[in-house]
Amino acid sequence: MTLSTRNSRGFTLAELLITVAIIGVLVAISIPVFASQTEKSREATDLSNVRAAYAEVMAEAITENMEYQVKTVPLKQKQDDWQSADSVTIGGITHAKGEEDTDHWRGTPRAGGTCTVSFDPKKGILFDWTGGSGDGNESGPAIDFNENIHGIVEETGLLTQYKTPMFEMDSKSPNSVMVPQVKKKLEANSLLKYGTWAYLGDTRDNFKSTYLFWTSVDTNAVGAGKKIPVIVSKEGGGFYISETTTADRTQGKQTYTAIADHIPNYNGFRQYTEGTQYETLEDAYKAYAKLLTTEEKYSAYKDTLPK
After folding, report:
1. pLDDT tens string 245-254
2. For the chain, how many structural domains are there in total?
3. Among residues 6, 124, 287, 291, which one has the fewest Cβ atoms lying within 10 Å of its Cβ?
């Protein structure tokens, strides 16, 4: 009687090395493909956001009797220029890679940059791609854009201690008992270590609505009655770029310049939270920094950014 035998020989070392090598090649091929698809997805998001901004600008221009309108869109892409297409069309305006600037298209999209969509009744629509490459803060300090300022103010207990329809805390107030309580909780790389800020709003339980105002401008240095750009952070979410007029305040025998005049109620704050809403402080800061270098009326403040 003959018994059959089964070959139970395992893999040799050479076969294992070949298998590992094949897997390595497959991984090396798949990683760039995945990265490419991810970047294309970012570009698709950017194009969608810019097209939405274009629609808003044109709608506002029509309802405002064709007056000048502008919106700025922070870009999410991580590589300069377009990777997904050789030409792009937005609002009937087509621009190809490598093409020179035109009356309606200026610049090239870059990592960490922005696209400002504007309408001029005399010139028409303009897509202005500026900023980047990088995180938009290369020349400044490493600011912690994830710091939760609203949470810090809440932790101090001040909002519970002072229940009022007109809560006001100004960073320039010389004898404030509230400002030091916030400052001691700030991180070393906090944005509030720079410029001027104020925490304002209604702190009553049934009407609570609070806002952080920040500007790179030293309000005491510029004085009262000056229009300055500000970042406004609404408690609960949302960042906006707006403008305030500085105002003098007197505390005892000392006078200081606040970031804004008294804002009496919720309707008073609405004007500061209109326009483009940014999802993160970092995106709002990039748009703010761009504003200081592109808007003539703010040219005097372009050197006030954190250094």
Report:
1. 999 998 888 8
2. 2
3. 6
